[in-house]
């Protein structure tokens, strides 16, 4: 339990930030999993729509400071490779 008023406030702010970050991280994971499921199902129309959505969500998470820009770039690249492999096959 914090002894000072400023420390108590930091606890509240930290909890609020934790929930905010968890929301965005979960959203990123969910959209990635749905895209990979569509790739497994070979649904090309759904895949192209979900790829755009996944890239958008990852970029938003970067702009909000939840994930690092290189992490988002790596994830977008890996998703795009899987989509390209589906289109090639």
Q: What this model shows, in words?
A:
- The protein has helices spanning 5-41, 44-63, 69-88.
- It is an all-alpha fold.
- The chain has one domain (5-88): Ribosomal protein S20 (Methane Monooxygenase Hydroxylase, Chain G, domain 1), CATH 1.20.58.110.
- The model has no long low-confidence stretch (mean pLDDT 96).
CATH class descriptor: Mainly Alpha
CATH homologous group name: Ribosomal protein S20
- By CATH, the architecture is named Up-down Bundle
- What is the residue-mean pLDDT, rounded to a whole number? 96
Order of helices and strands: HHH
Q: Structural class, please?
A: mainly alpha
Instruction: Profile the largest sheet.
Output: none
The name CATH uses for the topology is: Methane Monooxygenase Hydroxylase, Chain G, domain 1
The shape, in one word, is elongated
How many helices does DSSP assign?
Answer: 3
Strand content: under 5%
- Binned, the helix content reads over 70%
Overall domain count: 1
State the total count of DSSP E strands.
Answer: 0
Low-confidence stretches: none
- Using only C-alpha atoms, the radius of gyration works out to 18 Å
Terminal CA distance reads 58 Å
Write a concise synopsis of the structure shown.
This protein is mainly α and 89 residues long.
């Amino acid at each position: 339990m914090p002894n000072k008023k400023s420390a108590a406030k930091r606890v509240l702010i930290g909890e609020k930030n934790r929930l905010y970050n968890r929301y965005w991280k979960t959203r990123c994971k969910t959209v990635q999993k749905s895209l990979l499921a569509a790739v497994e199902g070979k649904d090309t129309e759904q895949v192209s729509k979900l790829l755009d959505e996944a890239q958008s969500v990852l970029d938003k998470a970067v702009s909000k400071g939840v994930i690092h820009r290189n992490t988002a770039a790596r994830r977008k690249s890996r998703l795009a490779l899987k989509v390209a492999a589906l289109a090639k096959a």
